[in-house]
Amino acid sequence: MPAELARVSETAPRRARLEDIATRCGVSLSTVSRALSGEKGVSAELRAKIQETARAIRYAVPNEIAGSRIILAASRAAMIDYSRYQFSWYVLEGLQRRAGMTGIELSIQAIPESGIAPIIELVAEPSVGGLLILTVDDPAVLDAAAALSKPVVLVNCDDPLMRLSSVLPCNRSATRLATNYLVEHGHRDIAFLLNPGRRTIEQRLEGWRDAMRYHGLRCDDAMVVSVTDWLPELAEQAVIDHLRAGHPPFSALLCASDSLAIGAIEGVTKLGLKVPDDLSVIGMNNLPQVEFVDPPLTTMHLAVQEIGEVGLELGQEKMAGLSGTPRRIELASSLVERKSVAAVTR
User: Fold this and answer.
1) Which of 18, 57, 250, 321 could form a disulfide with 191 if both were Cys (CB 3.0 to 4.6 A apart)?
2) Are 235 and 227 in contact (CB under 8 A)?
3) Which among 217, 174, 221 has a CA at the least distance from the CA of 196?
4) Architecture of the domain spanning 171-303
5) CB neighbour list of residue 60: distance below 8 Å, 6 or more residues apart
6) DSSP helix/strand/coil, 62
7) What is the DSSP letter of 69?
8) Higher pLDDT, 25 or 320
């Protein structure tokens, strides 16, 4: 496991205090304390208000949370991404930042190829208050996690049966926004490049199709380019092969990740074409390296660090008894304009 995974941010913001909740709710400190600890003497309505305020300002109940241990189980996909593209690195940065604020011990474990059973055994230890699972789609893992009596939160993934709380980017709206941006720039033939398989990536494909259908544009399989991994060189070759094969032409290419977009630009360039003059390209994630691509990549910024922070907050809420019904939290994205998209002049 890389040593950097254990690093805690040194610039964490001030921890929310009990006084902050009391001030916002207009009640005494003792009332807040009783409400959060589950003691009697506080009405259900006031207790709900205090708990909601605690969640809003990211307050962690010290007696319930500080010093607790949470297991973070990272899938193989998360670890590969960590070493290649930094998405998982930023999620972990957010997790570590929140853990440092609240005194949580975050124990990071890779999910073995044999399955999650060894991690389930760790979670059963009395010192462990809950489990976070990073970037997983395996139904067997989700089933095992849903059967646990301790709190479980999914990070950068979700449970299609909604048995478990989760936090992830709003992937569907991200690609819909990106597609709308291309349409606003006059593009009507917009292809989509992805490595299929994960639910979150399928959500990005769905967002592209949502926008294309809304605008009455073609979005069948002939407009989809697939690769078998996120490596830029695979995207490069896939784009070359697609353009040479006589598929329907397109003036813009929306990519499911920045790494695919970087490879796509290389492929377009090798064919003697120019980005964005001959073909516009948009990426997804807004990783630091995209500023150094030629041309700098227009991309969708995902709130990756915040995914980690909110994931740990959800776990803390459950450990403190502040959250019951599972929730799926999707964080919004925003477009970062650079130089890889040009307007179509007709």
Assistant:
1) 250
2) yes
3) 221
4) 3-Layer(aba) Sandwich (3.40)
5) 15, 16, 66, 101, 102, 103, 316, 320
6) helix
7) E
8) 25
